[in-house]
Description:
Layout: H1 3-30, E1 39-47, E2 50-53, H2 55-63, E3 68-80, E4 90-101, E5 108-119, E6 122-132
Amino acid sequence: xxxxxxxxxxxxxxxxxxxxxxxxxxxxxxxxxxxxxxxxxxxxxxxxxxxxxxxxxxxxxxxxxxxxxxxxxxxxxxxxxxxxxxxxxxxxxxxxxxxxxxxxxxxxxxxxxxxxxxxxxxxxxxxxxxxxxxxxxx
Length: 138
């Protein structure tokens, strides 16, 4: 693969990441009841170490969380080689920012990693790992 093609793929991944995260966080913060539509039926969410499998269970889990407001501060993305993912267009997205929950109104830093795959012209989350960035106490 030429360097030009690789750079174009990275640019596409970054553009997609900007659009996808804009939609995702708007939905989580304002229309959470629709969020499961962004996940594959077999999608995986790992939220602060709690694993949830399947978009229906993910939806229930997310609905049980307090209302939120996410502010994205950094974003990065890269394409995943299609021969590693059954020839499906797939991107890895890293997002960091602050989240405020209604129950405490304290800004908390978070890091979130998405693996998204193109399915019938729409982006779907295959895997989502969310982690609040709190100090580690050993």
